[in-house]
Write a sequence for this structure.
């Protein structure tokens, strides 16, 4: 039986959803495979993981311009090389224990940190298992570039071109798309789904998401869109943000629009399937899922760095509009709901960029590399 080690960072993240989608597809395409799906940072250094997550969240909220400066800055990449090597060395002992115990035939990483760590590990201990890097955003950054990565799965041809121009061989880069669950390829029973959420069949539905942690100016957004005269209804996904959910539940009766308020949802494909428009932060996985459901996007409050780059891609391809503020978002939403021709053009553009079978293609590549290893 072949063994595949999937590594991500942060639970309830896009990186984790990507590895889960690949795991799901691997089990569907190959019965003779054993998969371990592990939060690499938490496994190798749980204390450092908490510290880094805490610092990252505080920087994003208080000083986002700092993250914008750090993200994919060639100077920072060069200056932090020794620090990254040191972190890899500190984590190497536990990683070696994991690999020695599980004995993977291939390793797949959905985030640059574990990918770099395993690349250095392969070089140091002269392991020959294939290493695959899986991008979960639309623009690559320099922290992905390592000699010992055997293949990269990237969102599209433009991303592939960026890799090739950075010196990665073309035959190592596969533009399969961001891996999403196979559930997004199915059709939604809209009538029963709306009934389960106590929503109307004859009103447009607006889906509001703030990622797994329910981030963004959602409270201000709700107030702003309740000024829109046109009839519509709202689904709000609060993620793990219990404070936001409690705030919404308390004020439900104050709002004029019918609203379904949810916590962390494992039925995002159903929610997107019954919606006409999504208002969200442009995380890579949420974006790829929305495209798979031909869902136009209103972008609010993108994080500098990866989400800003995703925003550039979405705007350039005509699948999204960007709001400068919650009030601006309300204006854009009203305009799109009133101008069905523009909304339909955005839906068609989203459908054009949908890569519904991305996880399946990723699984096929993994199986192919496993077979090549035996030859």
């Amino acid at each position: 039986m072949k063994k595949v080690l999937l590594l991500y960072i942060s639970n309830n993240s896009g990186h984790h959803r990507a590895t889960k989608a690949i795991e799901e597809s691997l089990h569907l395409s190959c019965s003779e495979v054993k998969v371990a799906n592990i939060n690499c940072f938490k496994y190798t250094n749980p204390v450092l993981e908490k510290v880094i997550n805490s610092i990252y969240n505080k920087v994003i909220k208080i000083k986002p311009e700092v993250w914008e400066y750090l993200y994919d800055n060639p100077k920072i990449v060069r200056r932090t090389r020794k620090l990254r090597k040191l972190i890899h060395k500190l984590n190497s002992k536990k990683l070696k224990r994991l690999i020695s115990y599980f004995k993977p035939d291939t390793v797949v990483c959905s985030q640059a940190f574990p990918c770099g760590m395993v690349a250095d590990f392969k070089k140091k201990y002269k392991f020959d298992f294939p290493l695959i890097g899986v991008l979960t955003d639309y623009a690559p950054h320099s922290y992905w570039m390592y000699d010992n990565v055997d293949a990269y799965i990237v969102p599209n041809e433009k991303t592939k071109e960026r890799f090739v121009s950075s010196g990665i061989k073309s035959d190592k880069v596969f533009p399969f798309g961001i891996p999403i669950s196979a559930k997004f390829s199915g059709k939604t029973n809209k009538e029963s789904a709306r009934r389960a959420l106590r929503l109307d069949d004859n009103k447009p539905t607006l889906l509001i998401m703030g990622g797994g942690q329910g981030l963004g100016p959602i409270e201000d957004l709700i107030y702003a869109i309740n000024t829109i005269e046109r009839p519509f209804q709202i689904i709000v996904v609060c993620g793990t943000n219990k404070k936001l959910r409690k705030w919404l539940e308390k004020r439900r009766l104050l709002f004029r629009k019918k609203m379904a308020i949810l916590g962390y949802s494992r039925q995002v494909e159903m929610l997107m399937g019954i919606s006409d428009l999504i208002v969200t932060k442009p995380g890579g996985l949420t974006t790829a899922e929305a495209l798979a459901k031909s869902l136009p996007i209103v972008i609010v409050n993108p994080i500098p760095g990866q989400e800003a780059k995703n925003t550039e891609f979405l705007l350039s391809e005509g699948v999204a509009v960007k709001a400068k503020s919650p009030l601006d978002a309300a204006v854009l939403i009203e305009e799109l709901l009133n101008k069905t021709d523009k909304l339909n053009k955005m839906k068609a553009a989203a459908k054009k960029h949908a890569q519904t079978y991305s996880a399946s293609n990723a699984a096929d590549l993994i199986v192919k590399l496993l077979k090549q290893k035996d030859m």
In short: The CA atoms of residues 212 and 317 lie 25 Å apart.
